Give the backbone structure.
Amino acid sequence: MRKPNVVLITMDALRADDPGFVRNSEDTPTINDLAKQSLVCTDMTAQSTDPLVSHACILTGGNPPTHGGGIRYVPGTTNTAFRAVANGTPTLAQILAQQGYTTAAFVGNRQMGNRLGLDRGFFSFDDTCKGAAWMSGGSGAEVSAYERPHVGAHWPTQLEKITEFIQIRQDPFLLWVHYYDLNYGTSSALPREYIDRYDESFDHHAAKVAYADAHCIGPVVDLLKKHRLFSDTITVLTGSVGEGMGECGRWGHGGEVFDSVLRVPCLVCCPAGGATGEITSSVRSIDILPTILGLLDPTGEMSRDYLHVEGIDMTQAEWFGSDALAYAETYEISTRTWYVTMKRGSWKYMKHRSSLHNLKKDPLEEVDVIDFYPQIASELESRIGDINRNVALDDYAFMDVDQADQVSRDLSTLSRIDSLDF
């Protein structure tokens, strides 16, 4: 039996309410059409407000303490450590490569690969982008999103490379497409027609989403259909993080773990005849990998081989109607602060604030009700402790200074020290 192909499209700064079908809008016709053929999640919680850490969660199925990748503060110093995903944690690409898949990625942020380690398992991993004239001094020189952190890939160039891969591919294949240009600071690259069409919002966000629908998602879906691949492909579209629009006094993403930034949409379009409909329960970014594996292997044997996977297959019948525990964390460099939260259903506990919020009654997280429901807060806090006991070998972010310094000295004798890039 022919194995389905897998296409994963991730977009930074894609809010849960950005897709047009959520707002009864035709602003995103491609996403709207895809949603009609997909399992739709409009209440997915990302495991970080940092897109890099969130992508590591998506591609490993593990929470940040488990995969060990991302930015960490080195206790006892003024430095931060950007560490790769732990070597013992396989990525989606590594898992599928072992199953005979050809794997390729086209990403708009260079830190994803050689620093975060998400290039592991990809036969082809393209993290370069050709600068548009407005940000390269007119030369169009090769730049990277790492070297210019607020500039995404010049999309037409990336699309040419994706088209070439589809044309010369070997089936089955995994294709990961990461679209960076919803990020803050990239609106200067928008065609004037999009800026003029929409009322001015934060960094022209609505205009950028509409452009992405027409010029990113649309062409990729059209490519699959042109080459008669769409009906034999698992297509997943999701946001790595959302985007604050002034809720809770925050704009953009990163830092505080408010729901306006943690909540993202997710569409899982199964091969012809697969499940469709809305998943009304709360799900998490770490559930994407086990869902893909479940669709590839309904027996579940593939998922059981990987103990680091903490997510759940969203297509399983017993999943519907339940609310999973959703952990999230982010480290803010400017304040050297860990922001940590745990959610279940409408309840959200924020460890760094020692506050509890009922999101159904208080979606802006303004009212702390911990004094009225201390047992709920205590239970969610204990679950944070459970998550942080699943610490990767090279992850000591939550230890105190003395412990961390000792572990750092101990790790210096191990071969895996090269993954600690201080």
